[in-house]
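Hey all, sorry for the wall of text incoming. These are the three entities for the joint prediction.
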Amino acid sequence: MDWRRKDLLEIRELSREEILLVLDTAESFKEVSKRDIKKVPTLRGKTIITLFFEPSTRTRTSFEIAAKRLSADTINISATTSSVVKGETLKDTALNLESMQPDVIVIRHSLAGAPHILSKILNSSVINAGDGSHEHPTQALLDLFTIREKKGKIENLKVVIVGDIAHSRVARSNIFCLKKFGNEVVCCGPPSMIPPYLDTLGVRVEYKLESALKDADVIMALRIQKERGGVSFIPSLKEYATFYGLKKEHISLAKDDVIIMHPGPMNRGVEITDEVADGPYSVILDQVENGVAVRMAILYLLLGREQ
Amino acid sequence: MDWRRKDLLEIRELSREEILLVLDTAESFKEVSKRDIKKVPTLRGKTIITLFFEPSTRTRTSFEIAAKRLSADTINISATTSSVVKGETLKDTALNLESMQPDVIVIRHSLAGAPHILSKILNSSVINAGDGSHEHPTQALLDLFTIREKKGKIENLKVVIVGDIAHSRVARSNIFCLKKFGNEVVCCGPPSMIPPYLDTLGVRVEYKLESALKDADVIMALRIQKERGGVSFIPSLKEYATFYGLKKEHISLAKDDVIIMHPGPMNRGVEITDEVADGPYSVILDQVENGVAVRMAILYLLLGREQ
Amino acid sequence: MDWRRKDLLEIRELSREEILLVLDTAESFKEVSKRDIKKVPTLRGKTIITLFFEPSTRTRTSFEIAAKRLSADTINISATTSSVVKGETLKDTALNLESMQPDVIVIRHSLAGAPHILSKILNSSVINAGDGSHEHPTQALLDLFTIREKKGKIENLKVVIVGDIAHSRVARSNIFCLKKFGNEVVCCGPPSMIPPYLDTLGVRVEYKLESALKDADVIMALRIQKERGGVSFIPSLKEYATFYGLKKEHISLAKDDVIIMHPGPMNRGVEITDEVADGPYSVILDQVENGVAVRMAILYLLLGREQ
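and here's what came out:
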């Protein structure tokens, strides 16, 4: 199949075929980063702008490396140095950037739906690198890529997502993605972090970690977003760690070949202990590595599509 | 004619021939940004430093994209992350950067004349990307390019500049530029924003917007620079908007083929309404697009000159 | 000889042969920056990350220019925009970056030993661009390169280092470097800025500037690090300038062909007067120029080593 979309805005709207096309394309790009000369000329002469209104190392760096390994030119704009301090609207910032004829604008914004607004007004491709508590589609794609790599399949798995489901765009994108492939998804966290709509997505809720983890194929720990008020939903980090922090003794409740995932950055000792984060079941650094390959694939597909 | 200058410091010192050479060169570069591979090898192996002591998205990005499309290497330095916090003088910062053998230093600084100081002590080419309330020459050049593109000529036009003339480097550079080609320039704004020297530049002043706009070929709205204390010269933004904000009903006072310009970023609802900014007479996004072509031309001319 | 080290962490561990290899390699790279096309394809397809937890113009820019002139891709990460604000540990930040398969991570950190920690856990090459008050090896190498260039030798010289020896990584790296080649090193400063261990390094201490400078071949003034509390060790900047600031009359105490060095950024009028900084004996800007060549050499040696 061919890729037809101009933008990557959310997992929810993607078909299984589109998701598989991204994964297969990423597979072929993963090898590039292992070469001695880590660069292919595919996107030479293309201009890719990262427009980040929230701080980020990993995601911005991952996109920038992906773009450079495809030989594209990259321009980084972060909110603190941008015209945003001059009170320009997001729409005007976007239209101005578009007038400089970039090929792709990668946007992270605290407002859910911001990438969708850009998508409608821009001819450039728009990639959602995280919008509020809504979606973070490349994270879900790299997570699925990692699951396929480690488990050999992406169907009929039991995936347990632990943490602040209500405010996590990573959780939402993963739920949409995993349910498209018929996986069992269980969400687990304190009641204040469980949104009311989960049953409509076919997701089961467990408030007790030990019950949730039973026979899990995949465990995803979410980050407590201290910098975004995440602690206001729980009595204390210590209490959260006690009841929902992933510890070594939890592993034995899951399947023998369980994998442990975390989107990073980790709060060690809160949502995950060192033993689990650095242990044999952890695929956390594989996620980061695969992120570059998946983002190369997305850039390639968006820019190489039939126009 | 050949370009002979090492630096681009101000419009005031340029001849008509030099200005036309920039415009003609920009014409040929505009096409590069519309190609599938937006890149020419012209400045491969050249190093271009952007040294910004004031925040900017548009101008820094425009220079960076221009440089990259010419295959130059770019280095961005912004005041907040630079040695400036360590109390180094501007002269020492510049001499240190020069020792790393860059070809061009693009500087924005709140001090009028800062680029001229650098020009005298550096062998590298210096481009003024805005110095205090003094000049912003590439803005005037891209504005003139846009006028030529839209009106087919750059002479004998009536150009009305509306806003804070006294504190605007954009206004000053445009006045110098437009007067060189024998245009009628009318400045309009509240008395607190009109500098005393305008008549010496051959510029007429009107305090009433409706009178100023009569038969205008070009209307340039300036930005109220809220972040630089611009509001302290007016009773309120609301009052400014009432008397000097460009509204739809003003268009009919001008010529039928009037064009509306704004250097951005816009304060919508203050100096310009949405209807005008987004209406059929607006060429605001053309200005941004042409900015890349004009900056490619400047970089090309400065580095390709007879030495 | 061949370069065998994965990392450049400190001068202390380098052999004389290794140091000479860096200097000779830098010699051949210095010419690249003087070409019309300042670029060689040596490191095409390599990814170099600068990870700076302290502000810097000169060092970060020098590394970035060095990398680009070798055709490597560069990614800049500064602490203020990074995940550090999200509370991630240095180790996790490093492991995450490593998962994106960079070839080199250049790190500056306020914690002495931070690069050594990274070195142990990463396969990527690590370059110490300054760690707390510990070492700044590329500074010492570019200083030695400059001394060799100006004096024709790097042995049997009298080198006087003036200033806050106790808190200066530049001083420490230079002491280790200069002593390896059998130079006489004299440290001079107020007692509060002289560490107790200098005699164990074979360094002589003088508290009186005039005595210290007698027959010096090289004088290095250190920077008073105002932004890092440097003034808390002295009664006042004025008093420091009176007793330890380098002035024109000091030059005649040294050898006729003395050279004056400063790692920058300078506090003019404090540790050095304008007359000395800009005078005929000053090689301060040569140091900056040579910094690019030395960093090109380091990147080349680390990435081209036998693996």
